[in-house]
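Supplementary notes for students who missed Thursday's class. We covered one full example, reproduced here. Read the sequence, then the structure, then the short commentary at the end.
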Amino acid sequence: MLFKIFKNTPAIIAEIGVNHNGQANIARKLVKIASDCGADAVKLQTFKAFECAGAYSETASYQKGECQNQLDLLKSLELSFPDTADLKEYAESLGLTFLSTPDGLMSLDFLCDIGTKIIKVASGELTNIPFLYAIGNKKRPVILSTGMGTLEEIEKAVAALKDSGAPETLLLHCTTAYPTPPDEANLRAINTIKNTFNLQTGFSDHTLGNEASVAALALGAKVFEKHITLDKNMQGPDHHASLEPEEFKSYVAAIRKTAIMLGDGIKKPTRSELLNIPYVRRSIVASKDLKAGEIISGKSVEIKRPATGIQPSDLQNVFGKKLKVDVAQDEPITWEKLE
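Structure (token representation):
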């Protein structure tokens, strides 16, 4: 169900998040950039600040300098519900899947009311079991980020979503650090999550660059989420860990190219290899000029290029056969030339 909603597999989500700085015009520009770069979806964060944080919620280290506490920070980053609805309509007019992370019951209800097809759940809600039950009750596919989580916590979250009616859950491996240091990416956890829960997996990539997502794709990730920004130097908590437009374009290209390179896993000669086989492999050839009627022995033949004669694996079957025609030195011997 989930992958029928996206245009491609792997699916690439351009995470706008709060990089619009609370301004709908910036969000609109980022939606267009995501489309131009070849993303499959865009994602916002939809919230009312008072539902997310209280006055005593200090800012995290990557948020320092923005506001005195998270409540004030989130107030400055809110997009109105009408603006969000407009952005959904605009994204879908460009052929993008619209996603947004609800951070409270009001935003959850709103996103479902405007027809959001997939509910994306942030890592911070992994242990918010009552909220996960409310999400499951909406009976929509869920993409659940697992940053900061343990397998036990993921298990409880998945159970809550399933028990409350979510028809499908995809798990995103994630490290909640902006940016994520390379030694904390822990990409092998993708397979751990996939094998433990027997669910489709993806990667919410907060590292700098493309390498982590390329490696995650090779490990089996099917959905990718990466932050985009107009300018890394803009004021705001996530810009510095995001990709600018040309970087995001390269990111999408790297994922698409790697997906092609991974192939179908069946070991067989490719189209290009089939063309090269006659020139690169060897076959049985005459070691000297041979006359019709001669009996083939070990002294009569060698194994050389080209591969247009009898395969070397049939050498023993050639011995003792009689030639029907003359064969010049180095000329490939075929079955048609033998009695």
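Commentary. The chain has two domains: 2-262, 271-337. The first strand starts at residue 11 and ends at 17. If anything here is unclear, bring it to office hours.
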